[in-house]
Write a sequence for this structure.
């Protein structure tokens, strides 16, 4: 049986960096989802695949259990490599990774699994999940304490109970499937399965004519649903034919290989480059700053405008009482552009009718002191001839009485 594969890995729409790693390098196919934050997660996932590449035995294996033991041994070595690296660098402590691996051998695919990445098989239009999630809620579902619907929205659904690199030993699920021509397999991280349900996954795998199209469709659907996490998929088609040979980089005996170091080139990254890959769209990382910056600018603008408006003073009417206001007479929609500064003891019936018209529009003055002087002279008005004695003096730098500002 011959396998044809395509890979896609995408940071998603929320996270700035990608902590996932993947490989499609015959006979090894793998996905890993790093844990532990920005740098640590990336290091853990790539270190796991690099160690797997160096330590996985070439085979052929005498039976399925021999292949399983080979995978368990390689993953245990990856576990130790991550722990050792974290021990030597305090910034990396607590890092780990999920790991789902397929090892192709003849008409069989041997799988090993730790964590909540997943493996699926689409056969004759029916999708079967091959792996079990090693999470708290998945365990509660298996025990009958939660339904799958409840698990999907449980606040602790992301709590992982098994990962590579967290403790000195790691428990690995292993199993083997017999391949048939026409089988389509999927290895993926939870950036896909956390937002795209199994029915949609089955549809994307069924309708897509090639591995490239299927991988593209799955990543696109996860991003269309918000892309809250890194998304990585390896889509594999089984066909009649001779298996692909081991890649040159993987044929050296495991015992002659040194443990991977920080200076090693990332095998996972190199393997990803070998598979079909769409051009990366670089999203400007400063885009997330735009909304808060605009909000700050609006707030500052409002405060500056308010300060400018409040620096103005005018004398006007509050019902039937003369009052002194800060701001400008009038409003914008439901928002008044002024507020009460001081209510006086002068009433409208003490002011001649000819001057009331000016008060209704607002008599702009230069200061609170000038406003008080204007109010004090209002009761003494007797006729239109005295109008020039009330309001700002001709030398005042403020606008003429009756202005709205």
């Amino acid at each position: 049986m011959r396998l044809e594969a395509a890979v896609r890995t995408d940071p998603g729409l929320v996270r700035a960096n990608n902590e996932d790693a993947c490989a499609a390098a015959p006979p090894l196919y793998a996905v890993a989802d790093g844990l532990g934050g920005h740098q640590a997660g990336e290091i853990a996932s790539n270190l796991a695949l690099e160690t797997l590449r160096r330590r996985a035995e070439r085979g052929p294996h005498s039976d399925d259990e021999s292949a399983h033991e080979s995978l368990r041994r390689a993953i245990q070595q990856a576990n130790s490599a991550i722990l050792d690296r974290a021990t030597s660098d305090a910034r990396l402590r607590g890092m780990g990774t999920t790991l789902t691996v397929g090892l192709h051998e003849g008409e069989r695919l041997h799988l090993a699994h730790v964590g909540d990445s997943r493996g699926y098989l689409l056969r004759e239009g029916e999708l079967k999940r091959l792996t079990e999630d090693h999470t708290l809620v998945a365990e509660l579902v298996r025990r009958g304490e939660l339904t799958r619907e409840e698990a999907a929205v449980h606040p602790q659904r992301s709590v992982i109970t098994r990962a590579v690199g967290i403790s000195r030993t790691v428990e690995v699920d292993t199993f083997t499937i017999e391949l048939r021509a026409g089988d389509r397999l999927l290895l993926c991280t939870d950036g896909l399965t956390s937002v795209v349900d199994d029915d949609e996954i089955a549809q994307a795998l069924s309708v897509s004519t090639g591995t490239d199209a299927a991988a593209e469709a799955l990543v696109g659907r996860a991003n269309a649903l918000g892309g809250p996490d890194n998304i990585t998929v390896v889509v594999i088609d089984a066909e009649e034919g001779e298996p692909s040979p081991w890649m040159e980089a993987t044929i050296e005996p495991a015992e002659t290989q040194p443990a991977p170091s920080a200076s090693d080139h990332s095998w996972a990254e190199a393997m990803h480059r070998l598979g079909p890959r769409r051009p990366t769209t670089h999203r400007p990382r400063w885009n997330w700053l735009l909304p808060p910056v605009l909000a700050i600018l609006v707030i500052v603008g409002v405060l500056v405008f308010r300060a400018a408006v409040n620096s103005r003073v005018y004398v006007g009417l509050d019902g039937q009482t003369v009052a002194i206001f800060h701001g400008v007479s009038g409003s914008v929609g439901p928002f008044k552009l002024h507020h009460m500064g001081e209510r006086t003891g002068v009433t409208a019936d003490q002011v001649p009718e000819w001057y009331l018209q000016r008060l209704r529009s607002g008599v702009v003055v230069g200061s609170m002191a000038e406003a008080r002087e204007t109010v004090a002279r209002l009761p003494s008005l007797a006729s239109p001839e005295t109008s020039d004695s009330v309001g700002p003096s001709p030398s005042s730098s403020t606008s003429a009485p009756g202005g709205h500002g």
Q: What stands out?
A: The CA atoms of residues 137 and 153 lie 10 Å apart.
